[in-house]
Design goal:
The chain has helices at residues 39-50, 57-61, 71-82, 97-100, 114-127, 146-158, 160-169, 182-191; strands spanning 4-6, 9-13, 28-33, 54-56, 62-63, 67-68, 87-90, 106-110, 175-179. The protein is built from 8 helices and 9 strands.
Length: 195
């Protein structure tokens, strides 16, 4: 399958052409996308298959009661996390892409249709109404409101362009893999080595 261009960024859809975007053990892999796009699920599976440390940025940004970290402190923490030799990192946090992209060997953009993302978020909310999600810190129960749903709906127009602009601006951008469907995710995962 040939590369595609999304806002000027060349991305390789699954299956990955010529193994150019196959990560290896010891890689730094950044996974981004809309809420409900499947970032956390994919991150867990990639980390498991490649035996890499898994970093959910939500666990570092949010404090109990959904209190946000201060900007400078969070940037310093992300810089430390990104400096580690290998990882799978799940999360957007556009204000820190400049710290993470230079360290990433691979950027995976989960980009399913926004309606699918909203349905997944609603299902996730129902599934975790009693037990906390493993990718969220203690004291931050799953929650959903109209503002969050609007954020998901507007993600393709408001947030995705910022991610793509950060990739375009990177001095040495990582290889980009664009996954738009469950089938593409399955095909791409099937190409990964298992450690």
């Amino acid at each position: 399958m040939s590369p595609t261009s999304v806002a000027g960024i060349t991305a390789r859809p699954a299956p990955v052409a010529a193994n150019r975007a196959l990560p290896s053990p010891g890689a730094a892999i950044l996974i981004v996308g809309s809420p409900g796009a499947g970032k956390s699920t994919l991150s867990r599976e990639v980390a498991r298959r490649l035996d890499l440390p898994l970093i959910h940025l939500d666990r570092h940004y949010w404090r109990p009661g959904w209190v946000a970290s201060d900007g400078a402190g969070f940037r310093a923490e992300v810089a430390g996390l990104a400096a580690r030799p290998a990882w799978v990192m799940d999360g957007n946090y556009g204000a820190t892409l400049d710290l993470r992209l230079p360290r990433a060997d691979l950027l995976v953009i989960c980009d399913p249709p926004r309606l699918r993302c909203i349905v997944r978020v609603l299902r996730r909310h129902w599934a975790h109404r009693v037990t906390p999600r493993p990718d969220l810190p203690d004291g931050c129960p799953e929650q959903i409101d109209l503002e969050f749903l609007r954020y998901i709906w507007r993600f393709p127009r408001r947030s995705r362009p910022g991610i793509l602009a950060a990739v375009a601006a990177a001095a040495a951008p990582p290889t980009v893999v664009l996954l738009r469907s469950r089938a593409e995710v399955r095909r791409w995962l099937a190409t990964l080595p298992t450690v």
